[in-house]
Amino acid sequence: MDIQDERRRLLDAEGTDDYETATGVRSEQDIYLDKVQNGKLYLAAFVSVLGPLSFGFVLGYSSPAIPDLTKTTDDRLRLNDDQASWFGSIVTIGAAVGGLLGGWLVERIGRKLSLMFCSLPFVFGFAIIAAAQNIWMLYIGRALTGLASGVTSLVVPVYISEMAHERVRGTVGSCVQLMVVTGICGAYVAGAYLEWRWLAVCGSLPPTLLIVGMCFMPETPRYLLSQGKRREAEEALRFLRGPDAPVQWECARIEEACDQQGAGFKMSDLLEPGIYKPLAIGVLLMFFQQATGINAIMFYAENIFEDAHFDNRALGTVIVGLTQVFFTGIAALIMDRAGRKVLLCISGVAMAISAAVFGVFFHLTTGQHNNTSVRVMVSEVEGSLGAGPEVDLAWLALASMGIFIAGFALGWGPIPWLVMSEIFPSKVRGFASAVCVLTNWGNAFIITKCFQDLLALLTNAGTFWLFASMCALNVVFTIAFVPETKGKTLEQIQDNFRGTQAQ
Ligand code: BGC
Fold it and tell me: Are the C-beta atoms of residues 112 and 219 closer than 8 Å to each other?
């Protein structure tokens, strides 16, 4: 019996497809999943999310390091305002390039080796920063850690979604963002105690653990099957699903789907609805995530705390970090029950309202001025906040910022990355995810760099109302176009786009 016959026998033997299963009748998928043990899957996920932990550390690193570097007595390393801004933002350029590299790598060398590979620019980047003798070494180190972040932000969601199953994929996939925000928070906390060189040394620890840990973790079964390595795929599944699960059944199911999708991606495939629809959704999710203004608001958060009479600026940033960790944790816990769409909508509404209130706060405190820089905006707010208790609206700024950050963490933080990893057919996953990652980081760069120009053009209130309207648009986009992926296998999600399966 050849492989095709055997596969058909396995699938047939399992009876009806669970789409057709009448209520009350347990599907084959459920019976299979009941036999699965998740311990090793969680272990592999835990090791892989050391990547997002490192990438969060890179994002958070500039916040405590920049004040040190602008005040250092060493002339060769002292940053002026412009250099400090590049030190912060060069990471996003490196990450956009890293997204393209990651898309190529995952197809060429596989998910596991790509993950191990991305540890190298993290470690080298942090080593160059720790040993920096001039500003260029700082830039190169930041660009390398940015490149590693870009590769990681593509590879880890793909690695996790390809090895998880539908019962836990939302929770495990949300751990990517949970670890990003833990990394950001970790950098803020460590930065309160360590000077920038030691902080860089600290940042190189998680990627070092990642490369060692990944030696013992499997390649994803889907990648192995796409390479025709069935025996290795079964072994990987046996590792991930435990000894009791009949992994041949899952193998056959994935192979069947791969056959239907065809192998080898060609540009002309972009005309197929099964490819252009998820690609458009993935790109728009990434665009909208950044259009919420999260990075600009996180940057501004430190000033809000200071203005609200928090003498300890570092404590303020830690509170922002902890808020993100807490609400991203909640999102991870409820992701597989609440579903992606509901959380995206709640998150979008919370951010739209809080950004609009933020705008009102600026309107009330800074009047109708046309400010030209963040610095002017901050000093104006400082002036108005200090004007006396009757006009002290700091609580309004604090509350709206808290709700905005919590709202982002509940939906628009984790879900774009999760959905990106779920909606693309295998053959296009590398290319399509690279386009998404490029869109995300490219936009992050543009929005953080153009923030000052936006303030000049639209005033402070206008800029936050623009973010608020983008958040409102996010909700409309979610309701109209984002598919619910909760509880579906990757193959079922992709079938829905191709129109070969009922929702
Ligand atoms: C976003 C980053 C953002 C981070 C903050 C990520 O999902 O892609 O741009 O800085 O969340 O929580």
Answer: yes
434: its two tokens: 């690279």
Which numbered atom of ligand 1 lies nearest the CA of 417? 7
CA 413 to centroid of ligand 1, rounded, Å: 6
Torsion of the alpha carbons at 332, 336, 342 and 345, rounded to the nearest 10: 30
In this structure, the residue with its CA closest to atom 3 of ligand 1 is 295
Going residue by residue through the chain, which has 503 residues, state the pLDDT in tens, using 9 for 90 and above.
455 555 555 555 444 444 444 455 668 888 888 999 999 999 999 999 999 999 999 999 998 898 899 999 999 999 998 898 889 889 999 999 999 999 999 999 999 999 999 999 999 999 999 999 999 999 999 999 999 999 999 999 999 999 999 899 999 999 999 999 999 999 999 998 999 999 999 999 999 999 999 999 999 999 999 898 999 999 999 999 999 999 998 999 888 877 776 667 788 888 889 999 999 999 999 999 999 999 888 877 766 766 666 667 677 788 888 999 999 999 999 999 999 999 999 999 999 999 999 889 888 887 544 444 454 455 554 444 444 443 477 788 888 889 999 999 999 999 999 999 999 988 899 999 999 999 999 999 998 888 878 888 998 889 999 999 999 999 999 999 999 999 998 888 988 888 765 44
Start-end of H helices in 35-80: 39-48, 50-71
Residue 386 in tokens? 């200090």
Closest of 412, 410, 404, 411 to residue 464, by C-alpha: 404
The per-residue b/e assignment along 125-155, b for 16 or more CB within 10 angstroms, e otherwise, is: bbbbbbebeebebbbbbbbbbbbbbbbbbbb
Count Cβ atoms within 10 A of the Cβ of residue 498 and give its class: 0-12 exposed, 13-18 middle, 19 or more buried: middle
Cβ contacts of residue 186 below 8 Å, gap of 6+?
A: 53, 56, 57, 60
Q: Of 288, 295, 351, 421, which is best to mutate to test ligand 1, by the most ligand atoms within 8 angstroms of its C-beta? A: 295
The answer to whether 321 and 188 are in contact (CB under 8 A) is: yes
302 CA → ligand 1 middle, Å: 16
Element spanning 239, H or E: helix 230-241
Name the residue with the closest Cα to ligand 1, atom 10. Answer: 295
End-to-end CA distance of the chain: 35
Residue nearest to atom 1 of ligand 1 (CA): 413
